[in-house]
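agent> call fold_tool(seq_1)
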Amino acid sequence: MGLREAGGVGKLPLFLGLLLYLLAEKPASSINDSASPAEDAGSEPVVKLVDADENATETKEVEYGPCTVTCGIGIREVILTSGCPGGESKCIVRVEECRGPTDCGWGKPISESLASVKIPCIFVPPEDRFTYTWKMLIPDQQSLILPNDSAILEVHRDTHPVAFQCDTSENDDLIASVKYTVYTTAELETRRLKKPATDIVLVFVLITGVIVCVGVLFAIVFIILNWEAVKNFWQTKIWKSKEEVLHTSYASTRSTEDSGQIPTSQNSQISQVENFQERGTYQEWNAEGEN
């Protein structure tokens, strides 16, 4: 009996220790479970991309900057409008490629001389990423493909103008197409002689326009700053002109009186009085004749 009681007393501390261990372990596990979703969310931020087809009233988190080219291949910035570090309203996330229409029209050579000209294809670094196909354009005939496959072609001038075209491709996908006209040496010299005269005229017109605009601007500023003086000046000028008119009118009147002539208004009044007197005399003569 005593041994059983002793064994029961020994098991009680063991049971209490096990209970305390379980109570202490459960809050820690619950804390870890509650913190794990926050850690997962913070480890990989979610950036929402809004397409152009979506509702325009929806808040955008990412927007795209303008493409650096209007045709061919270029680059653009991807701008984050929400969640930027340091409380900034916008920040650049990355730079990516962008593409425009493939037809780039007629281009300009990168260098030219009286003997040759260098014309480039449309590409972005690295140059060996793309394949280039050069063609000589022949009117009313099929284009002639040249053996050159580099991004820059050097052409010697011929006796007649020649048109070239370069197609830039990537994995058999056409990226851009550009054309060039290589003029003859005589035509190039003629174009160079005509160009300075045109440039001189344009520069002269530009300088004249700038001078006129600056003069008008200074005149407006001067009038605004000295409005009272300008106002008094014009009032004085107007009064002087009125006084001159009055003086001229008075002088003409005096000269008419001195010459013995009566002004027109007075002549008309005198003629009216004389007519009235003649009518009265005629009526009296008729009355006497009847009597």
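agent> call fold_tool(seq_2)
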Amino acid sequence: MRTFMFLSIVALCSAKSLLQNEFLHFLAEHDVMQQDPPQNTSDIIIQPQTPTPPPTLDDLSFTCPLKCVCQVRVVQCSDAGLKSVPQRIPKSTVMLDLQNNKITEIKETDFKNLPWLYIPANLPKSLVELRIDDNKIKKIQKEAFKGMTFLHVLEISGNPLDTTGIEPDAFDGVMRLIYIRISQAKLTSVPKNLPANLYELYLDHNKISSIELEDFRRYKDLYRLDLSYNQIKDIENGSLAYLPHLRQIHLENNKVRKVPAGIKDLKYLQAVYLHNNDISKIEVDDFCPKESSIKKILYSGISLFGNPVKHWEIQPASFRCVSGAYGVQFGNFRK
């Protein structure tokens, strides 16, 4: 979901009315009429100042949407009784006001051709879900989400965000954030400064090469963890011991060479995805603890297909804590 989705939330739901002096302040601050575009527009952060587009023919000849008032790069459509986002908004629009209308749905294409649309720094504090996928975010600054006490869900996938781009205090004061997805980014390791009360963490499709001992020390409440489609080879002994409530772990499509130590000690773990790795051997105690009473919930699924393991050499007792005969998935390994 692209930037315009949460921009639309801001425009439709903000409690403060956008007065004329606020527009003038914005125009003065950003010098919309005179600024030249920067040479590098890739370093967008979570609280960006949008670069101003160069003058185009669209600035001189455009059709203002019905019931809207248009100035150069500013389109005001507030209090217009609109039931949908206006069509043919000038491409060079920087500021779009859609407050106090009757719009009930934002379509995928509504803001598709508005590359210069301004992203406000002060998002409503009442936001519960925030999705800013597929942008150019490289950095999340200190206290970027300050005051967002109701924020539960954050998706920030498809951005060139590296682990070092998340500042240590970026999530200070965010107490209810339980779901974070940072997929298809440039993470090279597990971020250690995300909110401690996370329930679900998705870091798939990154460049993480190893799991270190301290990576999950902070995230003791996690029950779903997705590390699939990375480059993970090594998982340090003891690194999973900090996840006592884990129910599901995705490690498929990596380069893992053996069943991670500590898997068998996770009492509530139900689903383990290990397919398409480099596991060549399964030991009898890799998944199940020696004392059956330690395991509180039986496995409902373990996927091992796409590994160079010879399943006929595995002892049946290796899966003694799996709930049913179809709980383990094997397949032909093809190099």
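agent> summarizing second result for user.
The domain at 1-122 is CATH 3.80.10 (Leucine-rich repeat, LRR (right-handed beta-alpha superhelix)). Confidence is low (pLDDT under 50) at residues 1-50.
agent> awaiting next instruction.
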